[in-house]
Amino acid sequence: MSHTDDKVIELARTALSFEFGGEHFYRHAAEMTRNANGKKMFLRLAEEETDRMEDLHSLFGNLMGKEEWQRLVAEESANTHPSVVIDAMEAEVARRGHSVVADDTQALRLAMEMERRLIHLFKELASHTSDSDIIKLVGKMIEGECYQYDNLQAQLDSVINTGLWLDSPEFRMDAKF
After folding, report:
1. pTM here?
2. Residues 6+ positions from 159 with CB-CB distance below 8 Å
3. Which of 6, 67, 73, 101 to pair with 31, CA 20 to 30 A apart?
4. How open is the CA angle 74-41-110, to the nearest 5 degrees?
5. Chain center to CA of 78
6. pLDDT tens, position by position, 37-93
7. DSSP characters over 15-78
8. pLDDT, position 170
9. What is the pLDDT of residues 98-155, one digit of tens each?
10. φ, ψ of residue 60 in degrees (nearest 5)
11. Residue 4 has what pLDDT?
12. What are the chain's domains?
């Protein structure tokens, strides 16, 4: 394997770690959030994680080959463990002494950190291919992660400035509403 192939496999493993851990992370954040609208938002994000896996299948299946990708998915799903971001959230909750309920702003900041890491991962992946179809798909995935990041930022701004949760996205990057 070339250096690029090794890097793509490393990026695929990282993406799978985030995707396998993402649903768990958002459900965990929902459990730890005090606000009912905050819980709804995190549960909605958890449900959206399954849709992203389809994009990953398409992206890495084309980049690595379907058989190699399926082997990697099986291997990673057998070794699924919470992501680094989930560990960070639990450590912060323990540090603050909140055994049952996390601070809403901390949950939002950690969710934003997870999205930021995914954005950087996909940008790095785009630099390891010259295939225009793959670059287009990576761009779509980056746009989706940026959309989620922006929604989380709006939530954080709302909670910090007014203490109110938004129960649905206030905007979309594609100007559909």
Report:
1. 0.71
2. 35, 38, 104, 105, 108, 165
3. 73
4. 65
5. 20
6. 888 988 988 888 777 778 888 888 887 888 888 888 888 777 766 555 566 666 766
7. HHHHHHHHHHHHHHHHHH---HHHHHHHHHHHHHHHHHHHHHHHHHHHHH-HHHHHHHHHHHHH
8. 62
9. 544 456 787 888 888 888 988 988 888 888 778 787 788 888 888 888 988 988 988 8
10. -75, -25
11. 45
12. 3-161 (1.20.1260.10)
Residue 120 sits at the vertex; the CA angle it makes with 40 and 107, to the nearest 5 degrees, is 30
**C-alpha to C-alpha distance for 19 and 40, rounded to whole angstroms:** 20
Q: Which amino acid, residue 78?
A: A
Amino acid sitting at position 128: H
Angle formed by the axes of helices 84-96 and 3-32, nearest 10°: 40
Non-local (6+) Cβ contacts of 172 within 8 A are 147
CA 73, chain centre distance (Å): 17
Number of H-type helices and E-type strands within the chain: 6, 0
- The length of the chain is 177
What is the number of alpha carbons within 13 Å of residue 158 lying toward its C-beta?
17
Q: How far is CA 109 from its chain centroid?
A: 13
Asked whether 45 and 112 are in contact (CB, 8 A), the reply is: no
Residue 164 has pLDDT above 60, yes or no: yes
Whether the Cβ atoms of residue 75 and residue 60 lie closer than 8 Å to each other:
no
